[in-house]
Design a protein that fits this description.
This protein is of the alpha+beta class. It is 28% helix and 18% strand.
Length: 372
């Protein structure tokens, strides 16, 4: 069941949740935390409704060739303009220019320079080795691709977002079943190594996967990135909190958040927007869909910087799955930040910042109508 938002103003939700813990520590139940986070998400959506529902969608349609469109006030969506029945082949010059601009801005390769602590030969060799390690990490994490996507978002929507963090589900490794004797002891070979159990075809029997874990870097879509109302510049220095809104499969959610088999998935708090490819296909067929995708659940993540309140000393990361708060590990009510200083795990790529508003001007500028 959907949690109802608190009866507070937009200015009140700009404060972090830690302030509520300071003022009303005994009233901050899990249900209250869920309501406060969902209300902050809804207020942020309302404050950026024009950009998210009209400007950004119009930009995507314009770039992908659907340029003869009009806004329908009754349906609150973009519709096709009446046109002739005959279809003619044309060249979408804007899509090519966008691709060229993205490639131009992302063509330069970041350089890494290791500085030795002293002129000692071992230190200088270590500095050279560190440069090679950083280049290898850059390639392994595919940071060039994430950078390219963030730059394209910057050109389309005014800003791009890079998110970094430690992913426990990275680098999966298969774990095979060990052959055992009648008394249950592992069977060893001549080198004292465990022998794998084989199936009828002579192949090792896969028992499970174990994850090595490691850092991860990816480009987050601005459509799933929310910030407090009233910010006057494209920077997170003034943001009291940040919220992300994602969708993932139920099995992935169980593994990622250690939900266990007893966790019951409730109803999501909001309808799920389809991927842009499906959206464009449906638009060409004359309709738009915002229904939930089968087998997926809603994940809302609330990020906050450190505060002088118990539980928030190292920042806070509170996750809701279908509106229900996920308990923290080791008996905590919620997780702390992965960074020692509690910083946000996001880096912004603004295009043309404008004083007085968070969302900058995009490379594809807003005009009177798409055909202007």
């Amino acid at each position: 069941m959907r949690a109802q938002p608190s009866d507070v103003s937009a200015s009140a939700v700009a404060v972090p949740i830690s302030d509520l813990f300071r003022r009303e520590p005994g009233l901050m139940t899990d249900d209250r935390i869920e309501r406060e986070i969902i209300h902050r998400l809804e207020i942020s959506q309302q404050e950026t409704y024009l950009e998210r529902s009209q400007v950004w969608i119009r930009t995507l349609l314009f770039v992908y060739g659907e340029q003869w469109i009009k806004w329908n006030d009754w349906g609150k969506r973009w519709l096709r303009r009446p046109a002739g029945r005959e279809r003619r082949v044309t060249i979408n010059g804007l899509a090519g220019r966008l691709t060229h601009m993205t490639a131009k801005l992302s063509s330069s390769r970041p350089g890494f320079k290791g500085v030795p602590e002293n002129p000692d030969l071992a230190q200088r060799r270590g500095a050279v080795l560190s440069e090679r390690i950083l280049v290898a990490d850059y390639n392994e994490l595919d940071m060039g691709y994430a950078r390219e996507l963030a730059i394209m978002d910057c050109l389309l929507f005014g800003f791009g977002v890079i998110q970094v963090g430690y992913d426990e589900l990275r680098r999966p490794r298969p774990r095979y079943r060990v052959a055992r004797s009648e008394d249950g002891q592992p069977i060893l070979d001549d080198l004292k190594a465990e022998i794998r159990e084989l199936d009828d075809d002579g192949e090792p029997v896969l028992d499970d996967f174990e994850y090595e874990g490691g850092p991860d870097v990816w480009a987050r879509s601005p459509h799933s990135f929310y910030f407090p109302p009233g910010l006057e510049r494209c920077s997170l220095d003034d943001a009291a909190w940040v919220i992300t809104h994602d969708w993932m499969g139920e099995e992935e959610a169980r593994s990622r958040f250690d939900l266990g088999d007893g966790w019951v998935f409730g109803a999501p708090t909001q309808p799920a927007m389809e991927p842009m490819t499906s959206f464009l296909q449906r638009f060409q067929m004359g309709g738009q869909s915002t229904t939930q995708r089968d087998g997926e659940c809603e994940v809302i993540t609330y990020y906050q910087r450190p505060a002088d309140v118990k539980g928030f000393e190292f920042g806070a990361v509170i996750t809701l799955v279908n509106g229900k708060k996920v308990p923290g590990r080791r008996g905590k009510r919620f997780e702390r930040s992965q960074w020692d200083d509690g910083r946000y795990p996001f880096f912004l790529f603004p295009w043309m910042p404008h004083r007085g508003q968070f969302i900058p001007y995009a490379w594809i500028s807003v005009q009177v109508e798409p055909q202007a």
